[in-house]
Amino acid sequence: MRGVIFCCVCICIAQGTLQGQEFKLFDRTVQVHGFGSQGFIYTNDNNWLTMDTSGGSGAFTDFGVNMSSQVTDKLRVGAQGYDRNLGQLGQYHPSLDWAMVDYRFKSWFGVRAGKVKTTLGLYTDTQDLDFLRVFALLPQSIYPADLRDATIAHAGGDVYGNISLRHRLGDLSYTAYAGHRSDSIYSGYAYFLSQYATYIKSFGGLQYGADLRWRTPVQGLMVGASRLDEDITGKGVGVSPFNYMAGVQPYYESSKADWENQVYGEYARGKVQIDAEYRRYWRNQQVFNGTSQDLTDVRGWYVSGAYRVVKRFRVGSYYSRYTVTNVTGGLLSAIAIPAIDTGLPANHDYDKVVAGRVDLNRFWNVKVEGHFMNGYGDAPYPNGFYPQVNPKGFSTSTNALVVKTSVNF
Amino acid sequence: MKNARSHLIATVVMLVLMLGPLPGLAGDFKLIANSSVKADSITGEELKKVFLEEKNSLSDGSHVEPVFEKQGPVHEAFRQAYLGRSDDDLQAYYRALVFTGRGSMPKELGSDAEVVAYVSKNRGAIGYVSAKASLEGVKTLAVVSAGSGGERRLLTRIEPEYPETLKRLSIGGLVRLEVTISPKGNVEKAELLGGNPILGESAIAAVKQWIYTPNHSRTTEEVSIPFDPAR
């Protein structure tokens, strides 16, 4: 049924009958916009992103609709609803993507409050907006589709601004934020824990951070850095590995000084766009009600390039490299094997990607993408490959064909 | 006498054809603003930030709202001159703003007349139209590119005289000058960078009377002045 609706929307957009709309409310213009995408993934081996991709899967859908209005010269309000299904994740449980009040005092100082998209690296806040880029899937080393919830938004506030530097040195944009993160129970981390018979009922907590980006005097070149700190708590039920006989017990985990650093650069000029990012995520989780420590060091980087061949056809390629190491402390160290060697396929995922995008019109595109992956990086933190959908174990390499179409109005 | 006059006009036309670009060429545009916008000039950098929704007020405090003209030579000329992004990139940029809650799709209108009508009625509206467009109810803005030493505000602006013969012949267009401003704010030097040389002479004469805010050092700026024979 949803597929039929998506097809109807595509046809409407193709014919130009569905476009961004405006209406007046209390003498103020309200804009209505929406987007959606439908993907299909086939892998030659391992099942990927919680889908049955080795048999070919189209369980890869998302869409969002928003309304916003410029209430006064400086005040803007708006909200966006979002829904998705990615294999076992999302499962069409709609969420409030963002809903905020934005007051811009000056170009160099503004405040946003409500549920606000988190500014982290080049694409965290726009990762759902498939129509913005050539690639069907962003580099998973930095923007894992299964862990979208982790950094997508926070309920709290931002201060932001843009400052022009003297002597033609370009300009600086800054964002600083603090708020509460709340992951869906249909997200990748909850699914990951379910393999251990642990079922999360809530997962979230304080997140605060900042982003600073410099648009340099070199035309088209921007560089930046982001930092995020978090204090996360997860609650649910589970069977303790230390005492199976006790059956299902309350489960509790909390973070201790978790942080994430990201540095990035973008060069966009004419028909060419080149991006590069590096991210390190340090996670010190106190698990099993504080009896154990789980220390995870996730590192990733990518370099991507895209080129517009003709107006409606672009090609692109990226190399994405993900590594993870993990050691445990407390009771867990007695049963967990440390993951230290990033050369092992269980501790890395190197992904070479080639992609092509055709714009059917201004609002509708189709993408075809090939992924050539080495490693599956499944332990001990989620990274696209889950044992629940790979019960026979993992192969070292995975090739994937991704076909995706997206619309917006 | 009549013959001599015809010869004079023909000579001027020949001179114009030889020395400068044809007036009213596709892509010539003027920047217009609602009368609520206090400034008479805007820097290229400021203009870019207004149209990319990074700025919603000018340094004098005037609220501003960008207005686009739909695809066409005027839009292309403006986009290339001041925004430095392809049309597709611009669309993607605005959609990213819209879908993250950080901005709106800017107003996009189909013709010069629609842009002028909208700008005249809406407080803070800034748009661009072809050089030939009728500008009833709106003001024109000069674009002043920030030069070395940062941006300087224009305090006194003298409008250039439009040479009668050229106006009668409907010869107009944009004149670009490089202006050197003394630390005290007087224009020391003005050189023609582009545009009709006869109009350029007139523009230079006017610009030399302009006064800018003082600065710790001498600065240079690029100034664009539109000449509209319809006005």
Q: How would you characterize the overall build of this protein?
A:
The complex is a heterodimer of chains A (409) and B (231). Chain A has 409 residues and is mainly beta. Chain A has a single domain (33-408), classed as Porin (Beta Barrel), CATH 2.40.160. Helix content of chain A is 5%, strand content 58%. Chain A contains two helices and 18 strands. Chain A has an 18-stranded antiparallel beta sheet that branches. Chain A is globular and about 65 Å long. The two termini of chain A are 21 Å apart. In chain A, 44% of the residues are buried. The model of chain A has no long low-confidence stretch (mean pLDDT 92). Chain B is α/β, with parallel strands linked by helices and 231 residues long. In chain B, a hairpin with a 5-residue loop joins strand 8 (173-181) and strand 9 (187-194). Chain B has two domains: 29-142, D-Maltodextrin-Binding Protein, domain 2 (3-Layer(aba) Sandwich); 146-231, TolA/TonB C-terminal domain. Chain A binds chain B through residues 20, 31, 33, 35, 64, 66, 68, 70, 73-74, 76, 78-80, 98, 100, 102, 104, 106-107, 112, 116-117, 125-126, 128-129, 131-132, 162, 164, 166-168, 219, 268, 270-271, 308, 311, 359, 362, 408, and chain B through 45, 49, 54-57, 63, 84, 86, 88-89, 91-92, 95-96, 98-105, 124, 146, 148-151.
SSE layout and pairing:
The complex is a heterodimer of chains A (409) and B (231).
Chain A lengths: L1 H13 L6 E5 L2 E16 L13 E14 L4 E12 L8 E12 L2 E9 L35 E12 L6 E12 L5 H7 L3 E18 L5 E19 L8 E8 L2 E12 L2 E16 L4 E19 L2 E18 L17 E14 L2 E11 L22 E12 L1
Chain B lengths: L1 H18 L9 E5 L7 E3 H8 L13 E5 L3 H11 L3 H14 L6 E3 L2 H10 L3 E6 L8 E7 L8 E3 L7 H5 L4 E9 L5 E8 L2 H11 L3 E2 L6 E9 L4
Parallel strand pairs in B: 2-6, 3-4, 3-5
Antiparallel strand pairs in B: 1-5, 1-6, 6-11, 7-10, 8-9, 8-11
